[in-house]
Amino acid sequence: MEQDALEIDNLCKRFGAVQAVDGLSFAVPRGEIMALLGGNGAGKTTTMAMMLGLVLPSSGTIRVFGEDFARHRYRLLERMNFSSPYVDLPHRLTVRENLTVYARIYGVARVRERIQSLAEELDLGEFLKRPVGKLSAGQRTRVALAKALINDPDLLLLDEPTASLDPDSADWVRGYLESWRAKSGATILLASHNMAEVERMCGNVVMLREGGMVDRGSPKDLIARYGRESLEEVFLDIARERKGATAE
Amino acid sequence: MSMAPILPAEARRGPVRASAGRIAAIALRHVYLLRTSWPRILELMYWPTVQMILWGLVTMFLLTNSSWIAQASGVLLAGVILWDVLFRGQLGLSLVFLEEMWSRNLGHLFSSPLRPWELIAALMMISLLRTLIGMGGAVGFAYLLYHFSIFELGLPLIAFFFNLIFMGWAVGLVVCGLVLRFGLGAESLAWFIIFAFAPVSCIYYPMDILPEWLKYVAAALPSALVFEGMRAVLFDGVFRHDLLWRALGLNALYMALAIAAFMAFFRAARNRGLLHQIGE
């Protein structure tokens, strides 16, 4: 059986009196797109930050491609990448300069060709010489995506990848990510508040509340189990701890 | 179009070359920033030049009023220039790190294969470049306006320069660690902390004039030993190897402590989830 891309086992993170992540365990099979869903403060961003080494877990383990992330962090990070609206690229550097810096950090071969190829795929050609700070939100999202794909990662973590995008741009990004995933065979874990996005893109969903997993399954299964019409209704049931919010 | 799979850099190039590539990438990021911003280049040269003019005038006055100064007319100008090596070295390292925090870029950097020590090495490279640019202006003006060449110090200048910049880097690293741990509220430390060392560094006067207890403090500072050594060259034409080795030993100790402090603050920041939250 093929090794899971990501295995989280009893992961906990406590910040003082706040239990941000509480005994989280799940696995993401290779080549799958999985979503972390939950309200604000449910622990999605903290969980992702632990997977990237930005936050130290209080306890529990993270295994990436079968290897202990705590022990082989830097080696594994070469095969990973991420994008988040909470982390920026330097505004005064041009798109090309930013991508060149990150291509070199990730040790990408043939940097110029790689940037050119991403610029064509993500329709960034005309912005390459423009400082990132002078781009629109939609253009910046595409640049952030180009940075996240610069090393052709095997595991891509996306925190709210379409936040602040208009519906047309958001749809384009989703379509691009789906085709990139199909072509590359990479694994994607995304945190999102956009239920339509999750329903469209993800094979599996982990529902979080107060740092713990309250349910998981495919969007279709979850909707059926909760007896609802959409994933958004399931999300609201879980987030608001509505009576009957437990799956039948 | 299908692309050939991208192998991890370390598997393809080996760890040393991969590491060198990452260090060069961070240095390149700041060269990009520097070359597109003339105010930044101007800022690098501004203070050394202003200080040079000011202290040059003081020197001209003292030449006719102090027999001590008259023995070696360049002693104050050399002090100003070398003090700026310490100051620029510390400030350069701290500011380059602060640039990453201001641009909210740390989350990207620390979730990449970039090791903290590689970031530190890149910060030092850029600090060296910034210091050399800054010093270039001051040294040029010193020669043009007062016919004083810092190169009259000869080869010991190299030893003085590197001892001072190492001490600046050690202080700068601690400042970076503090800002990492306590946030941008601590950034003003980058601007003033080094001046706390100025009185006991004995830049413009011999260590002998300090009160007895302060002499012990001064003797523990590489900067004070460098300025004492500088005066020995200028007044007596003697290069004090003993002072050089003591300064180097102290710098090695302080650099090790500074790196340990930075790593401890880095770990504390990871533990508290600060790395992906820091920004303006």
Keywords:
A: about 250 residues; alpha/beta; Rossmann fold; six-stranded mixed β-sheet; four-stranded antiparallel β-sheet; B: about 280 residues; mainly alpha; about 75% helix; elongated
| CA radius of gyration of chain B | 21 Å
Residue share in helix of chain B: over 70%
What is the CATH top level name of the largest domain in chain A? Alpha Beta
**How many strands appear in the DSSP assignment of chain A?**
10
Question: Gap between N and C termini of chain B, in Å?
Answer: 41 Å
Q: Provide the β-strand percentage band of chain B.
A: under 5%
CATH architecture identity of the largest domain in chain A: 3-Layer(aba) Sandwich
Characterize the overall form of chain A: globular
Uncertain regions spanning at least 5 consecutive residues of chain A: none
State the oligomer: heterodimer
Radius of gyration of chain A: 18 Å
Strand order in the sheet with the most strands of chain A: 6-7-8-3-9-10
Q: Give the SSE string of chain B.
A: HHHHHHHHHHHHH
Unreliable spans of chain B: none
What is the residue-averaged pLDDT of chain B? Answer: 86
Under CATH, the homologous superfamily of the largest domain in chain A reads: P-loop containing nucleotide triphosphate hydrolases
Distance N terminus to C terminus of chain A?
31 Å
Proportion of strand residues of chain A: 15-25%
* Helix share, percent of chain A: 25-40%
Mind describing the biggest β-sheet of chain B? Answer: none
